């Protein structure tokens, strides 16, 4: 590999010294020690076949949702991916394409993005949607920046029940932009807005259902926000929109979210795909691209990039975002998924997940030492354990090839010994019953 490394050892040491570190290892000091492997112990002189066999043996030590019963959620979900999706997105004209700069040779890609935008508008009820961003976290951060540009204010109010990873990305974006981020407290698992005035804020960002799985009272929140000049941003669970009212009915200004649940596997945490949709009046502030439908000189339908507010295309100081790429391949997968599943199919996926989640919650609540904290949920809920530490229960279930969920005590100090559990259409009744029986046993 040394032939492919552009830097000499002297250059590397100079770079390390310049940023105040002692070694390359210091660059990765934030990675937990137990997650690091110092040496793979691969013998020298192996053939490709032997090396591959050695690496596969090591890889098989990992546990994944493919060979376990998984109830993991919190932003990445184990949903069914129809086989046709990978078949389509791996076609050469899709998987190698980057940006459709030349519309005359990119009509297929442009049409897919146009269809994607249309489907997102149908689901959210909003006027326009962009051609995707990296993930739900960056979509939230970009929406906050949008609201600050629109209102000319530099303070954002975010629900404490927003995905903790999303909050970190928002704080990173806002730190560099000089925007102050404050958090709304929780009451009973939901955002508490009773004593807040929003006049000084650019926006109020609410996740629905929130990270704890609770369906927020958007009617009350919307009325309170609209009595001020703040913009309402809703981070929506995309599958939940098949059952819940669209954010447009709550007078949302901007709607964001993550599309991982639409035909994208868990993939060890990525890649994901984020969406942003908004009212037509904010069209010029939306980051990224928008594909439009027009006519060519022969009066045939023609697709083209109509809005490109990225720094790559216009003056940097006038750009709405410095994201210089998008997730077109992932957006294609979501478009294929929605096309294959259809409106009724998506509703069925959401409905099955919700019914089985409530079935599981009811069964777990019958076990001594376990309490379901909140009742207003769809397919994700929180349990509190009194009989043993949450980590201990999670590890014991993992030994039984069951991925129980997320230890919330590591993300919310007030939710010590609580686990976030997600149920999808993948979890059949037999899996759920086995989970319940194993929890009772341990």
Account of the protein in words:
The chain is of the alpha/beta class and 442 residues long. It folds into three domains: 2-56, no CATH class; 69-82 and 342-441, Aspartate Aminotransferase, domain 1; 83-338, Type I PLP-dependent aspartate aminotransferase-like (Major domain) (Aspartate Aminotransferase, domain 2, 3-Layer(aba) Sandwich). 34% of the residues lie in helices and 17% in strands. The protein is built from eleven helices and 17 strands. The strands form five sheets. Strands 2-10-9-8-7-3-4 form a seven-stranded mixed β-sheet, with helices on both faces. Strands 13-14-17-16 form a four-stranded antiparallel β-sheet, covered by helices on one side. The protein has a two-stranded parallel ribbon with strand order 1-15. Strand 13 (370-372) and strand 14 form a beta hairpin. Helix 9 (328-365) crosses helix 11. The chain is globular, with a radius of gyration of 24 Å. The model has no long low-confidence stretch (mean pLDDT 91).
């Amino acid at each position: 590999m040394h032939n492919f490394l552009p830097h000499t050892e002297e250059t590397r040491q100079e770079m390390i010294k310049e940023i105040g570190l002692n070694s390359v290892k210091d660059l990765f000091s934030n990675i937990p020690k137990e997650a690091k492997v110092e040496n793979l112990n691969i013998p020298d002189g192996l053939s490709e076949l032997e090396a591959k066999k050695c690496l596969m043996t090591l890889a098989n030590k990992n546990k994944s949702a493919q060979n376990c019963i998984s109830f993991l959620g919190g932003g990445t979900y184990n949903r069914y991916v129809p086989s046709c999706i990978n078949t389509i997105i791996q076609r050469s004209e899709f998987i190698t394409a980057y940006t459709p700069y030349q519309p005359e040779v990119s009509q297929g890609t442009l049409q897919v993005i146009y269809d994607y935008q249309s489907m997102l508008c149908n689901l959210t009820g909003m006027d326009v949607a962009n051609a995707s961003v990296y993930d739900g976290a960056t979509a939230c951060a970009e929406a906050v920046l949008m609201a600050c540009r629109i209102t000319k204010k530099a303070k954002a109010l975010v629900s404490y029940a927003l995905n903790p990873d999303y909050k970190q990305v928002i704080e990173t974006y806002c730190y560099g932009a000089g925007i102050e981020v404050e958090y709304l407290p929780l009451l009973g698992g939901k955002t508490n807005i009773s004593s807040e005035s929003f006049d000084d804020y650019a926006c109020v960002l609410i996740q629905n259902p929130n990270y704890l799985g609770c369906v927020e009272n958007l009617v009350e929140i919307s009325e309170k926000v609209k009595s001020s000049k703040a913009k309402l941003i809703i981070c929506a669970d995309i599958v939940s929109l098949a059952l819940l009212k669209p954010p447009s009915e709550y007078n949302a200004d901007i709607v964001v979210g993550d599309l991982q649940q639409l035909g994208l596997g868990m993939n060890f945490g990525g890649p994901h795909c984020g969406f942003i949709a908004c009212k037509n009046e904010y069209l010029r502030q939306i980051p990224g691209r928008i594909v439009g439908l027009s006519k060519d000189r022969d009066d045939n339908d023609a697709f083209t990039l109509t809005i490109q507010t990225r720094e790559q295309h216009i003056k940097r100081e006038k750009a709405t975002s410095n994201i210089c790429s998008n997730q077109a391949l992932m957006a294609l997968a979501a478009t294929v998924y929605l096309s294959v599943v259809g409106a009724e199919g998506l509703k069925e996926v959401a409905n099955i997940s919700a019914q089985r989640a409530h079935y599981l919650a009811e069964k777990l609540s019958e076990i001594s030492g376990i309490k379901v904290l909140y009742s207003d949920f769809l397919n994700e809920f929180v349990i509190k354990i009194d009989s043993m530490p949450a980590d201990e229960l999670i590890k014991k279930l993992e030994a039984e090839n069951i991925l129980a969920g997320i230890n919330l005590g590591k993300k919310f100090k007030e939710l010590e010994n609580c686990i976030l559990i997600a149920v999808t259409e993948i979890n059949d009744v037999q899996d759920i019953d086995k989970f319940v029986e194993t929890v009772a046993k341990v």
